[in-house]
Amino acid sequence: MRHVMSPLDLSVEELEQILNLAADIKANPKKYAHACDGKKLATLFYEPSTRTRLSFEAAMLNLGGSVLGFSSADSSSASKGESVADTIRIISSYADICAMRHPKEGAPYVASMYSKIPVINAGDGGHQHPTQTLADLMTIRSEKGRLDHFTIGLCGDLKFGRTVHSLIKALIRYPGIRFVLISPEELRLPDYIRDDVLKANNQDFREEVRLEDALPDLDLLYMTRVQKERFFNEEDYVRMKDFYILDKAKLALAKDDMLVLHPLPRVNEIATEVDDDPRAVYFKQAQYGVYVRMALILTLLEVEVC
Ligand code: CP
User: Fold this and answer.
1) What is the structure's pLDDT at 235?
2) pLDDT tens-digit map of 244-276
């Protein structure tokens, strides 16, 4: 039995297999319509979500399985003080696989220690979000045709943005990747990623404050929202929230084939006028999230479809 807490829990070969499987699912959905008949997915979400929870649920339903779970701590016995360890002990006898989102870093890992079923980290605090990374990788590979040799700008809240932390961990394993880290001083990448992941792996990266200075060099721009829910005070959030706004005028500085990604939800950081630009792929990215989650469920449940 396997759990997925970080993209590093999957080897490059396994990632490749999951992306290939996701591409086959996209091309031949009927082939997989009964692959998980009789199986149940539990979605244990202690923190709000639209894409991750609903795409996990859509993924299991598309595979013929069923879903159960809760969408907030308030509607579960966590509100009465039940621990994550006790919750997963119970859920292990109700479901075959579980996706957990939690505001505390490491909570899904704690669950995995007490679980009898595979646990997937669906986002833990400002730490990791490995299934968003699968969606990001499928988007890049599908739209660019490769996962190597490009310059990617990561822009916005790099301190609390768990999608960025997971994407960096995944991409450092491919050759020829250059990172441009674009953030205000207060929202720079944490040391445990900059030093322990980028520097420790001799990864090519530079830091910028102005998006305009980075844009002309980029093959991919990964925009992120300022993570309001992780700030200790409203004043700091208000000061930071509109630091970056990608609009048509700024996009004119970018290459004609640069792609704009965003894990969503978007607040103000991408103007809606950008949505119609062929370089904007963030809505496709959310759609790819269903296929990769279907592929991950099949992989962790060891279901083979011939
Ligand atoms: N990208 C993402 O995690 O979105 P949700 O918070 O809506 O799940």
Assistant:
1) 86
2) 999 999 999 999 999 999 999 999 999 999 999
The pLDDT > 90 percentage for the chain reads: 94
What is the distance in A from the centroid of ligand 1 to the CA of 263? 7
Strand ranges inside 71-174, DSSP E = 97-102, 119-124, 150-155
Which pLDDT belongs to residue 31? 98
How are beta strands 204-208 and 177-182 bridged, if at all? parallel
- C-alpha span between 282 and 259 (Å, rounded): 9
Cα(15) to ligand 1 centroid in Å equals 21
The residue whose C-alpha atom lies closest to atom 6 belonging to ligand 1 is: 49
* Tokens 């001083």 -> residue: 185
CA gap 137, 245 in Å, rounded: 24
- Quick check: CB of 176 below 6 Å from ligand 1? no
- The ligand 1 atom nearest the CA atom of 263: 1
